[in-house]
Amino acid sequence: MPGEFTSLTQEKKNSTDNTLTNNTLPNNTLKVKKCKIVNHPTGEARSCVVIGGTTLAIRCTQQLQAAGYIIVAIFPTESLFSEWATSQNIHCVEAREDLLTLSKTQSICWLFSIVNPVILPALLINQFSQGAFNYHDAPLPRYAGTHATSWAILAGESQYAITWHLIGSMVDSGDIVVQRHVDIKNTDTALSLNLKCYQAAIEGFTELLNNLENGDIPRRQQDPDNRSFFSRRRRPDAAGCLLWNKKAQELSSLVRSLTFGVYYPNPLTLPKVLLRDRLVAIGTLQVMYTRSDHKPGTLLGISEDHWLMTTSSEDIRISFVNSRGNPINALILANQCKLEIGDQLPTIARSDIKTLTDIHEQLTEQELFWQKRLARFSTPMLPFRLRATIDKIPDWHMSEWKRVLNHSSLISTELVQHIICAWFIYLAHTSNDTQFQVGWAQAEDAVHSSKWSSFFAMIIPMEIYIDLQQRLTEILNSISSEQQLLEKNRVYPCDMVSRQPVLRAINPLHNNRPWPIGISVIADYSEDITNKNAIQEHAIVGEIMTLQIDKNKGNFRFIYNSKLVAVNNIEHVASDLALFSNVIADSKNLNIVANELPIYEFSR
Question: Which GO terms describe its molecular function (predicted)?
């Protein structure tokens, strides 16, 4: 786990041997050393710094206090540890640089890295006179890296361990000082195994402190030939979809490895089933004693709480949950998908499995960006009042195209930005909202292929801050920067909202179109009369209304739900926006402050 000061340049894939004979390396591969404690003036040998987070870091720090250690500082990597340290009047540092400065000005013996995602530089590690220890929630060297408990369950391991080790030259590579055995049962989930590791970690830390007290720490070198490293970006095949040609126990391992409980974030993906027109998350999977002769993926039975399915070995019984984690009526689900007993569920081609897995792993670096942005969910007030209706089925209509006349000198990208700028200033002026989000449909690429539309969000939040005291050029620059930021971060997996408790609590994020107002950009629009509804559905980005821009023709129009929005309201807004867009598209106005531009007021 991070806490080391270099990264592994190459990953070694998990060994095909799924048996862990014991929780340490074989005796003939270990070089056992003794770590002697250097005598220091009274108190100095017990000075330390703790870096990390979660309740485990708190528990271990409490153990250090009880053992008489001087906690010189804490470097918290999350708020829970920080708040606790503050309540205990323990000094907190906020950055590695601050910790380095502190360690240079004050002699400190020990560093304890506990559930720490921060990479520590060698210069910092070397400041601690006695050494630095890191906690890893897995047996080393077999399971170096991240999310090890899930990978061990997925690999079918029955024996496991946690490790306290010295911080070495690579991630999770230092000499082992304590290892505690943990059994994995065939019913264990990521949640239950993490809880077992939590208890073992506390017991292991007690053992480590006792060894420090005795001044004699056994050390065992790790065998690099037995090392497997699991990258933070690595994800299960096919984004966690059940692959019916797998054995029942393998599918059970997949579901259990991705079950983290409703109160904890799921950092990987949800176990899921691909149906004809949707993905559905798995709630539970039970391996049966029966083994049917039907092809894998055949639907054998349907009831209100489960389906009975075939695999390449035993049959399985699966239940489903919605995006909020609540049970789904399996009988209703089958009816919605027009599935009957004897039907075979879709399979994912081998080439598609690799493509889907690659895309999923490529997007992992952007997940934190999207988690933070979605947690700030906000929408502007609409520039009109909505109609009262109890009918939830939308009736989509389109306004007439409006043309921006002063666009001849603008390239298509600039034209889009000018229309968006006019729309945002208009919304800020009519709603008094200066910071908000609207739905945005990214330009189509491999991720946005209709083949993967169930897996990845097709609508993402464009976030903007509008200061009406800024000049138009400044606002246009901020819109351009936002577009570049969205292109860089692409999209996020649809199940990310369900995997994060903070996001799961935001109700609109469970909708297909979370934002009431959306923006879509097209090129050279021509209406297909024979497939008009499909074109409209593809273009709809906002739950209530979408500003659709044709970047080549200099046109825009609104697509809106007529059950909520009156046509005269849309026509009024469209006319105002056309006039306002022409003002902004005129280069003579670019240095004018936004609040001084002519705004055509809309009567709400």
Answer: methionyl-tRNA formyltransferase activity
**Alpha carbons 269 and 254: distance in angstroms, whole number:** 10
Please state, in angstroms and rounded to a whole number, the distance separating the CA atoms of residues 123 and 101.
11
Q: Which carries the bigger pLDDT value, residue 444 or residue 592?
A: 592
Convert 211-244 to b/e letters by CB count within 10 Å (16 or more is b).
bbeeeebebbbbbeebbbbbeeebbbbbbbbbbb
Query: Residue 388, SS3?
Result: coil
CA dist 214 and 220 (Å) reads 18
Give the separation between CA 553 and CA 408, rounded to whole angstroms. 10
Other beta carbons less than 10 A from residue 353's beta carbon: 16
- Residue ranges of alpha helices (H) inside 170-298 are 190-214, 248-257
Residues in the chain: 604
* CA contacts within 13 A on the Cβ side of 460: 31
> Which domains does the chain show, CATH number per domain?
27-230 (3.40.50.170), 237-348 (3.10.25.10), 365-596 (3.30.559.30)
Backbone angles phi, psi at 223, to 5 degrees: -85, 110
Structure confidence at residue 371 (pLDDT): 98
3-state secondary structure of 583: helix
> If we measure between CA atoms, which residue out of 67, 244, 562 comes closest to residue 570?
562
Mean pLDDT of the residues in the chain? 88
The one-character DSSP state at 511 is: S
